[in-house]
Amino acid sequence: MLEIRDSVFPILDSFFLYGRQEGKGGVAVVRLDAIGDFILWLPFAQVYRQLYPDQKIVLFANEAWADFARSFAFWDDVVSVRVDDLVYSPLYRWRMLYNISKYGFSVAIHPTCSRVLLKGDSLVRATKAHERIGSAGDQSNISARHKAVSDSWYTRLVPMNLRLIAELERNAEFFRGLGGERQHLLPMGDVPGGEVHVSVPAGAYVVLFPGASWEGRRWPVSRFAELAQWLFRSFGLWVVICGSENERHLAEMLVGGAGVPNISNFAGKTTLAEFAMLIQRATLLIGNETSAIHLASAVGTPSICLLGGGHFGRFVPYPKDWSGCQPRPVYFVMDCYGCNWRCTKPRAPGGCVPCIDAISLDAVKREVSRLMHELPRVS
């Protein structure tokens, strides 16, 4: 069905994009991917104004983090996009494309490497900007045939190194293609967006993040529970569990399994800005390879990443020469690394993939102990 949409929707889109654009100026920046991708891109987003100092910059953002993006002064406006509805709701799609076409942008920029035909590529096409810049991109999310179609919607494609490099380096590569200078991942300082409206522990605490976008990437909740017990008994740390509303059941399982008195469950109870502030005040964060790991680095909090092999080297580990607070990965190498999470190994229904399951509790404890001995004494 998606293959049919990829072929039919671009044809139907043309009826809503008919006519020439009346150029009014301004820059459209299209970024529709996940929260973690947005965090890794922020060091570059903040200097777009240096490249376009006299232009109005409008960010078209995934609704999952659009409100958080509005907290930053890097753009003049943020338009929230219901990303899935671009694919599954024709009425929403064509209304959005039509509205974008009326902005009159002179420049459109799509800095995403793994482009998607019916999402970011379609929005760039809809701008009808005189200059439409995108990454030459890979084929992680698009077929060769459809990529050839969407490539034609751009006036310039920034060349891409075909070897596997970290996403931070990939962002730097694109930014250099725009004419900018290399940026380093720096802590964002005080998190914008107000105060935390949940009861934060008064003493030192550790954040556990048991969720992930796909169940196969989740380290077993039972091991998180054992880890919570050990953290409390060994270091006296209060345990704070975080996650989305959809991950609340995982957090509740963790609380029940841990059985320790000093534990708080904030899953589904915080905004993204509040979540970032919780992480910033924490002694340590431990979680799967998700946005939480990248947020911790951005706000300067040490983190331990339970890392599988699907995207190993693309998002984590970070490049060694990047400044900032780098996450410490714990992983178990297998010969199938680099599968793009298309795992062919057997696993239990609803369970994690073998490269995640192979990460032992003892391995995580050893890394926590090393890190805790490097940190100032907590109390």
From TrEMBL:
PANTHER family: LIPOPOLYSACCHARIDE 1,2-N-ACETYLGLUCOSAMINETRANSFERASE-RELATED, TETRAACYLDISACCHARIDE 4'-KINASE-RELATED. One of its GO terms (molecular function) is ADP-heptose-lipopolysaccharide heptosyltransferase activity. It comes from Parazoarcus communis SWub3 = DSM 12120. SUPFAM superfamilies: UDP-Glycosyltransferase/glycogen phosphorylase. Gene3D superfamilies: Glycogen Phosphorylase B. One of its GO terms (cellular component) is cytosol. The keyword Metal-binding does not apply. This is Lipopolysaccharide heptosyltransferase family protein. One of its GO terms (biological process) is lipopolysaccharide core region biosynthetic process. The keyword rRNA-binding does not apply. Pfam families: Glyco_transf_9. Keywords: Glycosyltransferase, Transferase.
